[in-house]
Design a protein that fits this description.
The chain has 18 helices and seven strands. By secondary structure, it is an alpha/beta fold.
Length: 403
């Protein structure tokens, strides 16, 4: 099911579109009905939306304003506009903002069904392409096919080292000793470092050690010294700010001096295990700092138009990574945390009977009063007015008891 928002300033049209079309049969779920563009923008910033079916002419922000906002913020949301006018200027603007379709009122239900069947087919096709690309990426074992990311940016230096090692392996006589298989394992190890899967890191390194034992001594040491050390050190230093290159080289020297090659590798395995634990510890402390800074910024700016992208920029990480950090460390998603801060503050402000509800809505970051009512009730179980009445009664009861 794809999430759909319907927006029209005429209630009978909103309700009619919602009620008289079997959206579920078409593959859509109507998640919100809005009466103006501001309400649409507030909602798409807070919730997951795939399509907006929107009237062009509405109070405050128009349908074109909504399309422009979605286009300029690169949101992955398709827009279908409705209008009682077949004006060239509207159609021209709609094309500028990547509007996928344009419906002229009065609306024919059959036309709506045809338009949304096409939109669903487009969504399904995009989804299939993404899944195929992901499948192909996972199937590939060549280092150049591995997408190494740190907070959304490609590790160019690591990729280049992998390429150099791969070329050397293919051109060298060492290829007969299954040197290439080591490169493949090394690529997998780096993926695990980037995902920071502790168990997989250690298990993959054990597999690498097993292969090193079965190739000539000189090539095994060369592999460890020239490639694996540099790669692991680059990732450790870039990812969590640790420099472990010299310690790694010292461990390899121990392997050279060891009477038994496999015993030396066992010591190296043990050291890798300790290093992974140290990286994990450092990574956790960095994550705590990110959360602390992000929360502080939200608590000081909750009244503004906050987005995941904006807060991520403030704490110098990618939006995707920040979202994962909130899920992992806070147990809630980013939007839920902002909602919690805003509604708790709204509850405090409702104790001041001199403030109007619409003023409180603005003070806590909700520019659309209707949407504020909806979020407040979802969070507390009460409308703002009901909550205020209960609070005032409770306050009066306590006052009388004290007397």
């Amino acid at each position: 099911m794809y999430n759909l928002v319907i927006a029209d300033d005429e209630k009978n049209i909103r309700e009619g579109l919602s009620r008289f079309i079997d959206w579920k049969e078409l593959g859509f779920n109507v998640v919100m009905k809005c009466e103006d563009g501001d309400e649409v923008i507030d909602y798409i910033n807070a919730m997951s939306v795939d399509v907006v079916l929107c009237d062009i002419r509405m109070s405050r922000k128009s349908g074109l304003d909504v399309a422009k906002y979605i286009f300029e913020n690169s949101l992955n949301i398709k827009v279908i506009l409705m209008s009682g006018y077949q004006e060239f200027e509207y159609a021209k603007k709609a094309l500028e903002y990547n509007v996928v379709s344009y419906i002229v009122k009065p609306i024919e239900l059959e036309e709506i069904k045809n338009k949304f069947t096409k939109v669903k087919n487009d969504f399904d096709r995009e989804k299939n392409i993404k899944e195929k690309l992901q499948h192909e990426k996972q199937k590939s074992i060549e280092p150049k096919e591995i997408i190494l990311k740190k907070e959304g940016e490609i590790y160019k230096d690591v990729y280049e080292l992998l390429e150099e090692t791969r070329v050397e392996a293919e051109n060298s006589k060492s290829a007969q000793y299954n040197y290439k298989a080591l490169i493949e394992q090394q690529s997998h190890l780096i993926e695990q470092f980037l995902e920071f899967n502790k168990t997989s890191i250690y298990n993959t390194f054990k597999d690498i050690s097993g292969k090193i034992v079965n190739i000539p001594f000189e090539f095994g040491l060369k592999f460890l010294d020239n490639t694996l050390v540099i790669l692991i050190d680059k990732i450790a230093s870039s990812y969590v700010g640790l420099t472990i290159k010299e310690e790694l080289k010292a461990e390899i020297k121990n392997i050279k001096n060891a009477e038994n090659y496999s015993i030396g590798l066992q010591f190296f395995e043990d050291w890798i295990n300790k290093a992974v634990n140290a990286i994990e510890e450092n990574n956790n402390s960095n994550t705590e700092l990110i959360i602390k800074r992000a929360n502080k910024y939200i608590e000081e700016n909750y009244m503004d138009d906050l987005t995941l992208e904006k807060v991520a920029e403030v704490v110098f990480i990618s939006p995707v990574y920040l979202s994962k950090v909130y899920k992992k460390k806070m147990g809630i998603n980013f939007i839920d945390y902002i909602t919690k801060i805003r509604i708790e503050r709204a509850k405090e402000l409702l104790s001041n009977k001199n403030l109007k509800v619409y003023e409180i809505s603005n003070l806590v970051g909700y520019k659309n009063l209707k949407y504020f009512y909806k979020v407040f009730k979802n969070y507390t179980g009460y409308t703002p007015n009901s909550y205020r009445e209960i609070f005032m009664k409770h306050k009066a009861t306590n006052y009388n008891k004290d007397k």
